[in-house]
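Try this one yourself first.
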């Protein structure tokens, strides 16, 4: 699994756990809703600024998102 796909899975998981729509996440992070959709589908790479903005809206530390992404990438490399 590549990093973009893993980021999308983790992003969607946290967003759904918090019952936040793509539109509300995008608004809170200062992004476009279509960009959130592209991120969740693994079609875009977020910048560090984007990662921090999204994590703030989701109320999760950026390192936790990265840790979850890392776990998906390395677990699926075996």
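Now uncover the answer:
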């Amino acid at each position: 699994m590549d990093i973009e796909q893993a980021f999308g899975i983790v992003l969607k998981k946290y967003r759904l756990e918090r019952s936040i729509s793509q539109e509300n996440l995008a608004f809170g992070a200062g992004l476009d809703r279509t960009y959130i959709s592209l991120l969740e589908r693994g079609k875009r790479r977020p910048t560090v600024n984007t990662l921090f903005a999204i994590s703030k809206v989701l109320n999760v530390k950026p390192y936790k998102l990265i840790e979850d992404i890392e776990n998906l990438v390395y677990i699926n490399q075996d």
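Discussion: The mean pLDDT is 95. The radius of gyration is 12 Å.
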